Amino acid sequence: MTIVSGFKRIALAAMAATALTASGAYAAEEPLKIGFVYVSPVGDAGWTYQHDLGRKQLEAELGDKITTTFVESVPEGADAERVIRDFAADGHELIFTTSFGYMNPTVKVARMFPKVAFDHATGYKRGKNVSTYLARFYEGRYLTGVLAGLTTKSNKIGYIAAFPIPEVVRGINAFTRGLRSVNPDADVNVVWVSSWYDPGKEREAAETLIAQGADIVTQHTDSTAPVQAAEDRGVHAIGYHSDMSKYGPNAHLTATTHHWGDFYISEANAVMDGTWESTDTWGGIKEGMIKLAPFGPGVSDETKKVVAEREAAIASGELHPFAGPVKDQAGTVRIAEGEVMSDGDMLGFDWYVEGVVGELPN
Amino acid sequence: MDGFDTLLAILIATIRAGTPLVFAAIGELVTEKSGVLNLGIEGMMLIGAVTGFIFTVLTGNPYIGILAAMVAGVAISLIFGVLTLSLMTNQVATGLALTIFGIGLSAFVGLAYIGTPIDGLDPIAIPVLSEIPVLGPLLFNHDIMIYGSILLFVVVSWFLYRTRAGLILRAVGESHDAAHAIGYSVLKIRYLAVMFGGAMSGIAGAYLSLVYTPQWAENMTAGRGWIALALVVFATWRPGRVLAGAYLFGFITISGLHVQALGYAISSHLMAMLPYLATVLVLVIISRDATKIRLNAPASLGRPFHPTA
Q: Considering only alpha carbons, which residue of chain A is nearest residue B10?
């Protein structure tokens, strides 16, 4: 494995300049070179950390058949294009770009290197050699909502969110659906912090929600500050991306966690077999892409049982978080009884379901 | 929860949110009063945050962490001092470089400490006083750094306007040639002012990593150093207004979160902008007297000094 730091990117570019263009045909005697582009530092919890766990699983599983390289903290924009291009020029035949903002750079570089396979996370643009992949985070959100509904005493849940985009709104709605399915009296209060990652601001938001009576806080942001705030204030928290129990051993109930390793392994195998083609993957609990972190001391056995049942029902397909009737805040039925919200509609979520307090800012 | 409790919660959170700004801005105020403009606050804060955190992890004692953060702030501000004062580089460019350097260096040394949980500083309830309803929790039940920030404000105000040494520091900031001509060591005074600013930025960073969110996270200051810098200018270099501006910024931030949590839709972009907008507006309005601004801005601010005579 090689780690490429920012300093070494120049060297990488220099090597790339002298390297021959990557040959498309895969030679079995040479290990497959796989590149990963990360948007933030790997750290020990969060979005990028989970992708890196997937990379490590890939290495453990496929051993010397492959080598992996990663670059962390790559800004979304011109820098990303350069890093992706350097990877491709340097003989990487499979490249994972793990942030939404890498979409256009990925598509652009893919056109220059038609024999390299590109996998872009969370985007919607595909090409002959560009696949997209995403996890059904909302399935985990629904389950944590069920758990919150059975655990809350104050019936007020605080939700710390980054930006009002469909991905985040979908999570809030799925959580609220799960919450209301077991506790029709509980509400969700949302605070937007306008940042994916600002521990100070996230802490302020958590303290605000707790001061207003929330006894469980959950988050769609990247830092562990909300879990810490809950621990300090003696309430509960549900983490996101990674298991965050270290930051709040008593507060942490569980977390929705993402698992990319199996997908990374199948993509690498497909490239080696020559069967790789452009696809759109959106996997959830059934595919093992979404799991709940181990339950904390605040979760009762009864609650664990209910959550496990719902988890099995989602995996088998008999339960869908947005199966009708789905009402919006005004009580209007948006998805009729017997219908299930389509993937396309879920990807464009721009309204709140019943149970969320307040209006959605635009 | 009724309105009064909400207001109390907002005010308590305001004091906490304003504290790192108070440290950093009061430190920068002293630096600028001596005629040196240091744009490296953000970088110095990050160095302070990471150093304070590492020393707290190693020793298990947050007070040693705070001290270490101070020392680190002084050390990194000395780099700035040598470049701008002795080598007379451009202060704006050097300050910017210091911030970029601080971001990178703190990320590098902090790498091994990401995800190490620590016990932060606990509040110290002042006996008797903290029992007073409303005022007790609002004013007399904080961690030691908050009391320290108020003390800092008092001492710096007194020093600048009530002591001879403070007068000399201001004289150096107003006209370094005149101060030099009557025999004061301009560079020595400026070095001390720069180091003081570095120490305070270091403490401001340590407040974030030891008290506010007890963890090390890359780039965790998230622009607070720049806010502190703006506060000094918009408060027209007056300590009282710097303090008021810091708390006002905190108040608007926290109030906005509370308004949202009550379910009112505010555009998230407006939310992010409002504290800046409101703080700048208020400070501009109270400082709108042009002659006062001219009187308050250190006349030699940002100008390099070379003792020719």
A: A208
Residue-by-residue DSSP string for A137-180: HHHHHHHHHHHHHHH-SSSEEEEEES--SHHHHHHHHHHHHHHH
First-to-final CA distance of chain A: 44
d(CA B108, CA B102): 10
A270 touching B (Cβ < 8 Å): no
Give per-residue pLDDT as tens, A261-287: 999 999 999 999 999 999 999 999 999
Interchain CB distance below 8 Å, A212 and B6: yes
Could you tell me which residues come within 8 angstroms of residue A142 by beta carbon, excluding any fewer than 6 positions away? A174, A175, A177, A178, A310, A314, A321
Say whether residue B215 is in contact with chain A using an 8 A CB cutoff.
Answer: yes
Q: Which of A40, A189, A223 is closest, CB to CB, to B261?
A: A189
Of A191, A212, A225, nearest to B213 by CB-CB distance is A225
Q: Which residue of A has its CA nearest to B107?
A: A41
**pTM for this model (two decimals):** 0.86
Distance CA B202, CA A135 (A): 41
Query: Chain B contact for A250, CB < 8 A?
Result: no
Looking up tokens 């300050």 gives B95
Tell me which chain A residue has its CA closest to the CA of residue B273.
A194
Distance CA B298, CA B295 (A): 8
Q: What is the dihedral of CA B5, B9, B15, B16, to 10 degrees?
A: 160
Cβ neighbours of B257 in A, within 8 Å: 191, 193, 204-205, 208
Question: Across chain A, which distance is largest between two alpha carbons, in Å?
Answer: 66
Between B278 and A254, residue with greater pLDDT = A254
* Cβ count near A106 (within 10 Å): 26
Residue type for position A318: E
Q: Is B114 on the interface with A (CB under 8 A)?
A: yes
* DSSP-derived pairing of the beta strands A326-327 and A333-335: antiparallel
From residue A290, give the alpha-carbon distance in Å to each of A98, A129, A346, A357, B10.
Answer: 16, 26, 17, 27, 37
Cβ–Cβ gap A200/B224 under 8 Å: yes
Q: pLDDT (tens digit, 9 = 90+) per residue, A124-148?
A: 999 999 999 999 999 999 999 999 9
User: What integer is the mean pLDDT of B216-226?
Assistant: 91
**Mean pLDDT over the full length of chain A:** 91
Which pLDDT value is given to residue A18?
38
Nearest to B218 among A41, A163, A164 (CB): A41
Note which residues in 137-196 of chain B have CB less than 8 A from chain A: none
The residues in A 174-193 lying below 8 A from B, measured between CB atoms, are 189-193
Quickly state the pLDDT bin for B244 (edges 50, 70, 90). very high
Cα–Cα dist A321/B88, whole Å: 65
Strands (E), A221-271: 236-241, 252-258
**Angle at which helices B41-59 and B186-206 cross, to 10°:** 60
pLDDT 10s digits, B80-135:
999 999 999 999 999 999 999 999 999 999 988 887 878 878 778 888 888 888 88
pLDDT band at A13 (very low <50, low <70, confident <90, very high): very low
8 Å CB contact of A359 and B263 = yes
Question: Encoding tokens for residue A187?
Answer: 């509400």
Q: What percent of chain A shows pLDDT beyond 70?
A: 92
Burial of residue A13, with CB atoms counted within 10 A of its CB: 0-12 exposed, 13-18 middle, 19 or more buried: middle
Type of residue at B83: L
What does the block give as tokens for A250? 């008593």
